[in-house]
Amino acid sequence: MDLLDINDRPGAYPPSFYAHAATPLPRFPAADGDISCDVAVVGGGFTGLSTAWHLARRGYDVALLEASRVGFGASGRNGGQVGQGQRVEQDELEAMVGRDHARALWDIANQSVDLVREIAARDEVHATFHPGIIHAAHRARDVPGYAAYARKLRDDYGYDRIRALDREELRALVTSPAYHGGTLDTGAGHIDPLELALGLARLATGAGARIFESSRVLRIDAGDPARLITEDAQVTARHVVLGCNGYLGRLVPRVAARVMPINNYVVATEPLGRARQAEIIRHNHAVADSKFVVNYFRFSDDHRLLFGGTESYRYRFPRDIAGAVRRPLEEVFPQLEGVPITHAWGGTLGITMNRMPHFERIAGNILSLSGYSGHGVAMATLAGQIAAETIAGQAERFDVMASVPTPRFPGGATLRWPLLVLAMAWYSLRDRL
Ligand SMILES: Cc1cc2nc3c(=O)[nH]c(=O)nc-3n(C[C@H](O)[C@H](O)[C@H](O)COP(=O)(O)OP(=O)(O)OC[C@H]3O[C@@H](n4cnc5c(N)ncnc54)[C@H](O)[C@@H]3O)c2cc1C
What we know:
This protein is an alpha/beta fold. About 35% of the residues lie in helices and about 25% in strands. It has two domains: about 5-80 and about 195-260 and about 355-425, 3-Layer(bba) Sandwich (FAD/NAD(P)-binding domain); about 130-190 and about 260-350, D-Amino Acid Oxidase, Chain A, domain 2 (2-Layer Sandwich). The chain has helices spanning about 5, 15-20, 45-55, 90-95, 100-120, 145-155, 165-175, 195-205, 255, 275-280, 320-330, 375-390, 395-400, 410-430; strands at about 35-40, 60-65, 80, 130-135, 160-165, 180-190, 210, 220, 225-230, 235-240, 260-270, 285-290, 295-300, 305-310, 340-350, 360-365, 365-370. Strands 3, 4, 5, 6, 11, 12, 13, 14 and 15 form a nine-stranded mixed beta sheet that branches. The relative contact order is 0.19. Flavin-adenine dinucleotide binds near residues 79 and 296.
């Protein structure tokens, strides 16, 4: 079953608050006839749009093929948290790949947040980068570990923008009885993700890239040049970059065996007003908690609480997304019981077994970058810059990312889903115990 088809209307944005608030770009044409280019980019999320922009700036002739609309996928629907570091914490990374490699991965992660901050400052992007993410511990016994990690980042990585919060400090910043302490990271932040994606599309076309929407790639014939087939076009390209993440389907089975789609859900409340916002989250920080099925939330610029969480392990979105997300929202903020929810939507992301991104050369001239495991706002945006420099002959950062091994899911692309359901059900049960 293909996630591009089952939960969304073809060629339309989901009913998200972001799509409601953004001024969408005029529709780009569908690819038609014979097209040739230096680089064909598949997917119009952060990965693909950033690749197209960075390549076009370097003078490459780029054609981006998007099955639906730009920012239609996870990039236009996510929690907007621009997290610092890799998805996997540094001590775990050091154990996984050694200290030097872990250090290089940390530096790359830092560059990803800097890149989003720089892009957000451009006129083409109609979104503001708001600094600060709070990581909140839902169990008192986890609080010392949070403080120790902040110390480690300061002592071993020279990162001084994170500090530990005890229970009182945390509750002064986030008025919730659910949390016992945590950290505040002012190097991280949050942003409207659809506006970021639309801004990247403006930057890409401004630099000369051609974007095609409603242009799903049905087949890729490897070779030099490679050939990509859509319903109405045949695209010939010297290089191909795949940025399909959770929506890849079976286009490239090798990648599908390592990057698993998983759904996650977000709601927006009615605008709560500036004063009520400050009663709930004092300084407009974003928050992510320590549950295995993470709750994450922040305020929109018009003072709505945007609250996300509630994974479900079925392909199809639940009928009542608002009802499903309301439960954790009201557990975290009992004072918002019964708050009107105006928008509720789902999206699909790509996760890997070890939660590190999966960068791979599928062939000499075909790159795939995906599997950000819920940590892709910054990393997927940087992935585009890395793909562009790799094609231009500077592959150092690509190789640092690609040399973290990505295990196949047990069962590969066919049987992975039932196994994941079992594993996830166990972990989310553990959250509740
Ligand atoms: C609900 C939700 C909340 C999240 N919250 C956060 C968060 O707060 N912070 C964070 O860092 N990350 C978060 N993420 C993850 C983040 O959104 C993703 O890691 C990131 O957007 C991935 O970008 P991408 O460009 O690789 O993929 P996508 O944005 O998913 O783009 C892939 C695109 O490829 C297109 N496509 C697929 N197949 C084809 C084909 N055959 N032909 C043409 N086009 C094709 C799709 O239509 C889609 O537009 C969240 C994800 C979800 C779903």
